[in-house]
Design a protein that fits this description.
Elements (H helix, E strand, L loop, with lengths): L1 H14 L41 H11 L1 H22 L4 E11 L8 E14 L4 H68 L4 H36 L33 H25 L2 E15 L2 E15 L7 H67 L5 H35 L10
Antiparallel strand pairs: 1-2, 2-3, 3-4
Length: 455
Amino acid sequence: MTRSLLPLAGALLLAACATPRAPAPESPPRLPAAWQTPQAGAELAADWWQGMADPALPALVDKAWAQSPTLAQARARLALAQAQRGAAQAALGPRFFSQVSPNRGQMAPPLSPSTSATWTVQAGWEVDLFGSARAARDAAGARAEAAELTLAHARQTLAVEVAQALFAWRHADAQLELARRDEALAERLAKADADAARAGTLSAAQAALGQTLAAGARSATQAWLEQRGAWLQTLALLVADDAATLQLTQAPLPQPAALGVQQLPATLLERRADLAAALRQWQAAALDADGTAIAERAPQLSFGALVGRGRWEVDGGNVTGTIWNLAPTLTIPIFDGGGRAAATASARAQEAEARAGLEAQWRGAVAEVEQALLRWHAATANRREAETTRGHWQRIADASRAQARVGLISGQALARDERNALAAGSAALDAAREQTAAYLQLVRALGGGWTVNKI
């Protein structure tokens, strides 16, 4: 019987189709041929945060990478995907197991109880003639690669978020210092106006205005105090640590240099781990669809076998001997009420969804870079203008202090000029924060320093 099945198995092997291949990575159609706002500048480094000249940022990024629950979840998903890839690979080969089966019983009342015992080694193998199991293995491999890329993207994104929170804290801390100085000046002016009103040299309405401005300065101080605390909590959440343990010292906001953005939009696939992960997910869906389509129409050939020894009690004596069995099985799909066709249609729909998702994500990535470039150009120009204005007001305040020392202007006039200088300094801080935020947005849009060579 075994020999009679060999020609059938050989014919099936010769008729087997090639293993499905994952789709090649191609640029989605109708992407822009070039950036609308290309920019010359330095290449984004993989450890870009080291070049931000901030004393705390590198250590905070390292702490976030080591302790973040978000990264722990991504690592667990990667381990799961790798285990599933291993299981899919194991399904391609034969399975062996051993079984020991002692038995004692009475089969029928007239018969005496009997004893038997067998020990066997069993094997089973479903031959992947047409490639459906290999497609499932390759799909699991693509998903494992996608999980690895997702982890890389999460790491780069977390580094950007830590930098955003730290620089927002630095901005709020510097603004709080200016607000406290402004509050002291406003209180001094309000007191002088109140004294002048009591002396009859200033109207009550003008004195009340001074009190209102002082109250506004006090409110601004409280607002910046709240913002600084909120950003400290955000930073602690990102690095998975207590806010009380974050020993941050004052430092100026960085002045980042322009990043070079001259590559074609289609090359974002080589720079963004999330796009590469979406590509792998699409490839996995395409392999699943091919494998399901094969399983719908292809016959399945499996082999089962066992060999072992047994001992039986027969007519008061014992019989021992070798037992064996070889059982090839050929399963041919005939009719299942449309279940397999529905599974194939479902897999094809999932592949189409993944392909459309990849294209949408790719287009979104291009738009993110363009938006980040526009924001960077505007923020850089605004910071330059704000610094110029701050310098003008600082020189005016310095001149007023010199005039006040020789009695040429009153203390109230000096305080007002100093408040104007502080307001200009606050505006310059806002512009510096916006430029830093625009830089980090561009870093994120360009992939956070990841490259395809890292996989």
